[in-house]
Amino acid sequence: MRWMSGLGWIVLLAGLGCSTQAGDDCESGQRWCPSGCTDTQTDSRNCGGCGNICLAGQVCQAGTCSCPTGEQLCAGECFDTRSSPLHCGTCNNACPAGQTCNAGVCSGSCPTGQTSCSGRCTDLRNDPANCGACGQACGAGEPCFEGACQSGCPVGFTECSGRCVDLQKDEENCGSCGHACAAGESCDAGTCGIRCPEGYTGCGGVCVSLASDFNNCGSCGHACDPGQVCADGTCSGGGCPSGLTDCSGSCVDTDNDPDNCGSCGRACPAGQACTDGTCGVLCPAGQVNCGGICVTLATDPANCGSCGHACRSDQVCASGTCDCTGRQTDCAGVCVSTDIDPANCGTCGHACTGSEACVDGACTVSCPSGTTACSGYCVDLNSDRNHCGSCDHACSSSESCVAGVCSGGTTVRGDSCAAPIDVSAGGRFTGSIAGASADYSGSCGGTSGRDVVFRYTLSSTMDVSINTFGSAFDTLIYVRSACGGGTDIGCNDDARSTLRSELVLLDQPPGTYYIILDTFSSYVSGSDYVLHVYFSAPSSLGGDACGEPTWIDIGTATDVSGNTCPWYWIDARDDTVSCRRGTGGRDFVYYFVVTTRGSYTFDTCGDGTSWDSILDLRSVCSDPASSASVTCNDDSCGLQSSVTATLDPGVYYLWIDGYSESACGGYRINITAP
Questions:
Q1: Is residue 319 part of a domain?
Q2: Phi, psi of 376 (to 5 degrees)
């Protein structure tokens, strides 16, 4: 046998792919490649072996090139088919022009809290490729947090693919980066688990009551022996206590057990609860079930005081009684403003003479400056379409009165039904009635006052909330399906002890509607208006969304309370708060009116809230973006939240939400006002 020289051995070993002398210094689990020591299980340039380079966008996992979790290889590149407009839901399924890809489905718009960037729906608050604005990418090693590129993540957060996440709570990165919880699970303390309603526990993928479940009595997996029953979390052989029924070894109250309602094995359908042994809608405290819908008898105009007792269109329901709104009085079955009605001036039946007008409840021949007595009203001849330039000189239905002249044109946006302002998108709208004509009047007033017209179209039945809180003058609003005339669907003059107006229209059917924002009279001072309009799918849960928020009297209330996860909340909607992306938690929205500038604090600290809550204070109810969020807080006092802000006069919306879908329960929001 002939021995090779040292150089020959090196050449042979190199040819066989074995490490050279330099590889002897590699750490355990690494191997020597021309580029140096590397872990071929994770190195995308030497994946599974030296020189095996993964495609762009791929990562090396267990020595195999693959796309990151949640992405798919399409045309040689990795794409997230949940959001890619070129590969939406599956490879090569491109969305039509103008549409975006959300959750693997092409649609016309992105969900609340997300923005379309080149057809891809993304959250600008945490997307490293679109941080704060589309196309604004963070540099290498810079995560995106709260819409800004950072040098690192805050304490308590971990960087995962350029995002700062809480591994203890994030359902896409639970416990570690890339570890996503399965559908129906939530992340709690870094561990994925099933979501269960309050009072139930997840055992083997099923929600059970440990207090009564035969197979999970007191704890998961603890089954009672044959012949025993489970009561109060304890197995016993003495039968069920009085008032409880033995259902396959579980002691249950068939009056309220949704799995055994009225009798063993009779389960209520999803979304229903068991009350007095009968399945049905369970209403929150303070509401009553009227025909399968939860209503507040004290304020519901369709069920005022009792189910089916409807108020007239010119009335509101207050304390369970149908009554006229604001300064109106019921005169012979019609609500009239005795402050300005010449037929009922000051009191019902007191009529002014032909030469008089009704001003502040008194007949007079002298009208306020800038107005003239016409047909018993003080009107502005420069703007009143029925008295344009002179008394009784009426413009045609297609004309408005501008500077005392009937004209088909207008100088004010939304001045007539011919050119209404479209508010179908909902939100907060501002403008001025200065220079507008006085074209219309509603069943609750508005005769001779300047007005502007808005329009919205519903493609499906919706709850609609409208208010003018924050306007600079004495407003009234009315809604019609026929703009220039017809019956008011709703009309309101004064709401919430203010001179501003409010309407909540529940279950409004599809169609086109007109909102007319009017002034109480022609001599009202101020011209700037604020109009809030919100739409939500019908819900039996008051406070579930912006179309039917719940009122807080900020002047007297020191706290408000409720529960976000009893059985009747199964069908509640989830909305996004501004300081937490896509919580999945059930939430509740309140609204209140500030009349005096000052500092206000809302918190869930102390007794009353035991789960991980979030508070979001907004100036625009339906918009969680930073521009509309006054302030938002996740953890201020442990897992509870607190927000403080100096607020100017106007309307505000307060959301309470859970950090994750499993975070819900009873709560109390403490209120500190000036």
A1: no
A2: 90, -5
Backbone angles phi, psi at 268, to 5 degrees: -80, 150
Does 412 have pLDDT greater than 60?
yes
The residue segments making up the domain with residue 655 are: 550-672
Residue 168 C-alpha from the chain's centroid: 25
- Is residue 422 within 8 Å of residue 458, measured between CB atoms? no
- Is the distance from CB of 126 to CB of 145 less than 8 angstroms? yes
Cβ-Cβ contacts under 8 Å for 503 (sequence gap 6 or more): 464, 465, 466, 467, 477, 479, 490, 491, 492
What's the whole-model pTM score? 0.65
Residues near 562 by beta carbon (within 8 Å), at least 6 away in sequence = 284, 285, 543, 588, 666, 667
- Alpha-carbon torsion 333, 336, 338, 344, what sign? negative
Cα–Cα distance, 488 to 443 (Å, whole number)? 7
* 3-class secondary structure, 655: strand
Residue 286 located in a structural domain: no
Please give the residue that has the higher pLDDT: either 546 or 570. 546
Each residue's pLDDT tens digit, 328-355: 899 999 888 898 889 999 999 999 988 8
Rounded CA gap, 188 and 178, in Å? 16
Residue with tokens 């809480």: 166
| 3-class secondary-structure state, position 213 | coil
Alpha carbons 436 and 528: distance in angstroms, whole number: 12
Domain count, the chain: 3
